[in-house]
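help with this.
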Amino acid sequence: MIPFRLLASAMIVTPLLAAPLSSAQAQDGQMANPAEKMRPVTDDMLKKPDDGDWLMWRRTYNGWGYSPLDQINKENVKNLQLAWSWSLTSGATETTPLVHDGVLFIFNYGDKVQALNAATGDLIWEYRRDLPEDLVAAGGNNLAKRNIAIYQDKLIVATSDAHIIALDAKTGQLVWDNQTADWSKGWRYTGGPFVANGVIVQGMTGCGNAEPGGCFVTGNDPQSGKELWRVYTIARPDDPKGGDSWNGLPLDSRFGASAWISGSYDPDQNLVFQGVGQPYPWIAEMRGTRPHEEGHGHESLYSDSTLAIDPKTGELKWYHQYLEDDTWDLDYVYERILVDLPVNGADRKLLVTTGKLGIIEAIDRTNGEWLWATETVPQNVVSGIDSKTGKKTINEAAIPHIGQTTVNCPADPGGRGWPATAYSPKTQALYLPLNEFCSNTTPQPLDQGQVYTGGGRATFARVPVPNSDGNIGRVDAVKLTDQSTMWSHRQRSPMTSAVLPTGGGLVFGGSWDRWFRAFDDTTGDVLWQIRTNNAVNSFPITYEVDGKQYVAVAVGNGSSAARSWATLTPEITNPDGGSALWVFALPSQTQ
């Protein structure tokens, strides 16, 4: 195996930009700079990307997270070895690299963005944002971003101080900078942007910091950064769709509903599908939506919903809510997978998503009609689902109340968390990284006269599922045509990365115990594995340069979700530092 080579970030001394390699440098032994010949990314490219590129968070607008590349396959994956590596800034490393025309772009913790030669790992340029000292000192997940975007000749980045910026993709120079909100008031970005029909779509988070009226999704002009529209994720009192769904609460007492994961897009309908998170405080009795007041709705819209938005106008066409009046921190914010499959003998345009409950749900993406659901991990919150409407019956014993501790299966950070599921058209299966656990949930009520200033206001003491065999992590393969389980891989360590299915019949994924694995997509057999230097807690990708396929994954400790799952396996420990990008390929003779 090629020796592990970590290039320390400290070698880069220029505070904002490292100059791109010149032609003269390339002649003196440096690799040529592929950014010089990089093509602008067009709308057509985003609709149908080259097989070897990875141009957006889940690679394609439909959110599949699938690559058709098949040079690395079931027969030769056993020969996969390290091709190159690159040190990243230590911290929560939840990133998704992008690759275009042989250039790999990556967001580092603390708002450092780098462009690397995707074949060699050589640095092309670097941008470092000058963040406020108080923001940097606070640390945490707020300095991590799960994705960036590329469009035309620009790299689009959501920053930790609540700006959206554009960098020149070839040089890293700042092109424009647009402030969306005031970071000092709690606004944050953790998910990143994507571009739909020529508009940058970005969800706002940090809405558990007592921001009156909660969060929103914006549309921005990619040429100037100017905000074009704003869709609020908490219904205003005068909203005819859901204004009276907060138990009579005024707007300034409605909190939460972060849009903290990037969305999907259907070009045929010109609709963006954006997931929305839970209301705040987490406990319904504390925020005032329980007990229910006669004459008022209490769904807490548009929390835990899919929003269907026209990206040109920002018009909310329709919504579908999965969990009414969430009182457990059980987001339905995650990726929306768009796939056309038969339901009851008729072809339907599906939108499939899975919330923290681990319940896979399909709706019709033309109108939001609920179609079907299937469960995965053990859960005790939902006792029944109406087979026609999808309306959930809640287990009253699982509802937390002030002054008592309630057992919930699961609770935060979810039976499935932000590490994304993925779909393969080869198998028609959804692949899911999952974790089995329960929680002893205890509300933290406000003192007499105390004003709510943010936070979930609950303690989750995570425990194994009753009568558990000790295995926490799972990867499941569920056939979407009939919702049958093809296979389920179970292990002691929590699963902490997204999964990546490929045309080679493989599914890549990683876990808290530092193992990165390739599974057989039809059987679940482990065909290859490697122990990395830290937790695998990000979004793996695969790409091709000059006819050679690579698999890339970032590792690093610090994610709050991974640390939460880790409390269930105290014997597994990881370094605090050591974030890195690992890139694998086959030896030349085995391709």
